[in-house]
Design goal:
With about 120 residues, this protein is mainly alpha-helical. It contains 5 helices and no strands.
């Protein structure tokens, strides 16, 4: 994906099966390239290390009692967004990154009493 260029972008923009937003497509390509550069510079575990640091929030104590107690972003996800943008990643922010931390299991926000908790 990091090697995609104008022909691949045009092909993707014509593909009705995906979200055809040029900015998101170009950001995906740029992010693939940024990830490769991150791995080259800091090793293949570098992204995992950044995610672990973002997920380690000392203010988090126990499970949220209600869905309304689950944050949409945290100071850690905001720091992660700044760090990744400084490393060339695009089209991401604290809320998207916090959702990614939840989806990948770095953060467990299942509320008290949830069968998944």
């Amino acid at each position: 994906v990091a090697d995609y260029g104008p022909p691949e972008i045009e092909r993707l923009l014509a593909d009705a099966r995906i979200i055809r937003h040029r900015g998101k497509i170009e950001a995906t390509i740029a992010n693939a390239d940024a990830l490769l550069r991150l791995w080259d510079r800091d090793g293949e575990g570098a992204l995992t290390a950044l995610l672990e640091v973002a997920a380690a929030d000392p203010a988090r104590q126990g499970r949220p009692a209600r869905l309304s107690d689950v944050p949409s972003s945290t100071p850690g996800s905001a720091r992660l967004a700044r760090e990744l943008k400084a490393r060339g990643f695009r089209f991401l922010g604290p809320t998207t990154l916090y959702a990614a931390l939840q989806a990948t299991g770095f953060v467990d926000d299942h509320v008290e009493g949830c069968h998944c908790a």
